[in-house]
Amino acid sequence: DAGITQSPRYKITETGRQVTLMCHQTWSHSYMFWYRQDLGHGLRLIYYSAAADITDKGEVPDGYVVSRSKTENFPLTLESATRSQTSVYFCASSERVGGTEAFFGQGTRLTVV
Amino acid sequence: DAKTTQPNSMESNEEEPVHLPCNHSTISGTDYIHWYRQLPSQGPEYVIHGLTSNVNNRMASLAIAEDRKSSTLILHRATLRDAAVYYCILMEYGNKLVFGAGTILRVKS
Questions:
Q1: Across the interface, which of B34, B43, B85 has its CB nearest the CB of A90?
Q2: Quick one: average pLDDT of B47-75?
Q3: Region B53-77: what's the mean pLDDT?
Q4: What mean pLDDT do residues A86-112 have?
Q5: How far apart are CA B40 and CA B36, in angstroms?
Q6: Per-residue model confidence (pLDDT) at position B10
Q7: In sequence order, what are the residues at sequence separation of 6 or more whose Cβ sits closer than 8 angstroms to the Cβ of residue B107?
Q8: DSSP A38-98
């Protein structure tokens, strides 16, 4: 099925552990984005990518690492999880930014204990 | 990044039109105006976008001021399912997608 898929949907991890959130899209969109949304707040951009092997920082990149070796995948890694990284994470993709719509995944709810 | 200003919240009656305003006085000539909404416990979804002219689609209409410094999202007949947070975003071609605080729309039956 065409679309954008995030996995896992829910994750509980311990402080200090490395955790990777996966994002996969089937449209071959050039642009992909990672956001976090804390309870009662809006979405904040963590990282984005304009194409495979091209990534750039967003508003809140500290503590996160991304890679994009293939167009369709954009994993987000928390190198050493902290409680402040407890959040809902959304991935999005867009053919190009501006004149076309962006599509969002259903989110990954991450709890760091 | 060009900024947008939206009211924190608005309320509407079911079956009535809703006009959601957005101010973007620092908009540049290449910025597209996008609207997304986020229903409870879901990811954001696209509503509509435009550059200079008014736009209509099955979900809503977008009215853009002649000087492009403001725009209005119009839901023609609000339903309970339209209760969501609505985000107005300026997106420069080729640039990143940054959200503001949005407007919480409450729909009363």
A1: B43
A2: 95
A3: 95
A4: 91
A5: 13
A6: 97
A7: B11, B12, B13, B14, B18, B78, B79, B80, B82, B83
A8: -TTS-EEEEEEEEETTEEEE-S--TTEEE--SSTTB--EEESS--GGG-EEEEEEEESSBT
Q: State how far the Cα of B32 lies from the Cα of B25, in Å rounded to an integer.
A: 13
Q: What is the DSSP letter of A109?
A: E
DSSP state of B5: B
Residue A108 to residue B103: CA distance in whole angstroms: 23
Decide if B94 and A45 are in contact by the 8 Å CB cutoff: no
What's the rounded mean pLDDT across residues A11-18?
Answer: 98
Q: B36: part of which helix (H) or strand (E)?
A: strand B31-38
Omega prior to A61 cis, within 30 of 0: no
The residue among B96, B99, B103 with the most chain A CBs within 10 A of its CB, best to mutate, is B96
